[in-house]
Design brief:
The protein is α/β, with parallel strands linked by helices. The chain has one domain: Dihydrofolate Reductase, subunit A. The protein has 5 helices and 10 strands, in the order ββαβααββαβαββββ. The protein has an 8-stranded mixed beta sheet with strand order 5-4-3-6-1-7-10-9. Strands 2-8 form a two-stranded antiparallel ribbon. The chain starts with 7 loop residues before the first strand and ends with a strand. The model has no long low-confidence stretch (mean pLDDT 90).
Length: 187
Amino acid sequence: MTAFKRKVILDLAVTLDGFIEGPNGEIDWCIMDGESNFLDFLDTIDTIFYGRVSYELWGNYEPGPDSAVLSKQICDAINAKAKYVFSKTKEKDDTGNATYITGNVPDWVSNKLNTPGKDIWLYGGADLITSFINAELVDELRLAVHPVILGAGKPLFQHITKRASLRLESVIASKNGVAQMTYAVIK
């Protein structure tokens, strides 16, 4: 049997004080420009893992007609990926754009990692991220740390049950103040 080397990569924006959303779910602090190399990242994946709430908010997002070209390119690239939604309350949606996973998550993910394909983007939300980290299913963290302190909101990490050791792989600082940090999870 051929061994596949697909990775689960947590990639998301976070504030300097560790929040992924403001107190009311706002993400207006997130800087999206060509310096983030986000399109390059999207070329390395073919699959996106969402929690149900995150998928309902962003899984079928379409930019408006007046949106920037980069936003449209990112949206097109995301919509070309296979989407899987992990949910305890829902088994499908009306769009048919995603496959819902309701069973044993660690076993299902292990099986998915042993199929041919590119790496997998763990989009979130926070509960799904926590469950993946606690189950040792994350291979890499790619965090875009934005130059803002919110003081309150939804924290990236909460309810982690054991230590995860990381190795810094790279740091790329952009002119807009975003630091893109990539960490490998040491297993």
